[in-house]
## 1
Amino acid sequence: MSGENPKKQENGHSKDELYFAQLVLSFQAAAYQQMGKVVNPISGKIERNLEMARHSIDMLAMIQEKTKGNLSESESGFLAHVLTELRMNYVEEANKPQTSTTKEESKGEDSDRKQS
């Protein structure tokens, strides 16, 4: 360890950078699962819950806002890319007709809005 930065890993990234990427990827994976884009590993089924997907995306947006100015250029770019990708997929899913795997969250006030 002669003169090396102890925070740097072999790949040139610090533990904090790796942890930040893992955090972002965790929310991304959750959002894709909640949008019904990937199988729920616990149930083995495609499950769609757009309300929870929106929550996961909003959490990443909050992280982006709260960390503004404190991220490296690559971290900031990575987070912005993930958010853009998730938002585009969310809009795509929100415009699809509901299926039997869709959660019941849209009944009630959402169906009232559609009838107006």
Note: Residues 1-5, 101-116 have pLDDT under 50 and may be disordered.
## 2
Amino acid sequence: MDMGTFLLVLLIFALRVVDVSLGTLRIVMLLRGMRAVAGILGFFESLTWVLAAVLVIDNLDSPFKVVAFAAGFATGTVLGSTIERWLALGKRILRVVTSVDSPDVAPALRRLGHGVTVVNGEGLQGDVRIAFSVIPRREYPEVLERIRALNPDAFVTAEDIDTPRLERRRSLLRR
């Protein structure tokens, strides 16, 4: 493979990595209600895709270009999801189940600045406390570490959530 072909293969790969990473982030922005940002990302995603596709279609003389196109897609998928995890946009709801006889995690969560709702319940082995707290995704590792340090036996579940924006609340109230 000559240097020109090698550079073209590398360019196709890089364009696809950028294109697919932008696509992954665009979808995340849509899911988080950030439509304007998603639109801007979509513009650059499609522009980048067209450039990569043209380079492959106009140069079908080498299978390396097609492989670079596909490999860029795979790499972009991994990179896009890694960037999304690093950005950690949005919120996560925690459910922390503890025995009533063990340390209560609610005061520690409140000291970290998080609202907490505690409900008493009955578990398999007796009475329990269930603490609910909505936290920024970015803070999840630190909060989980604090919970584990305070009460290693706590049963913790977490999931990403969508919190309604003010506009959505207003439209619901008008109905």
Note: The first helix runs from residue 3 to 31.
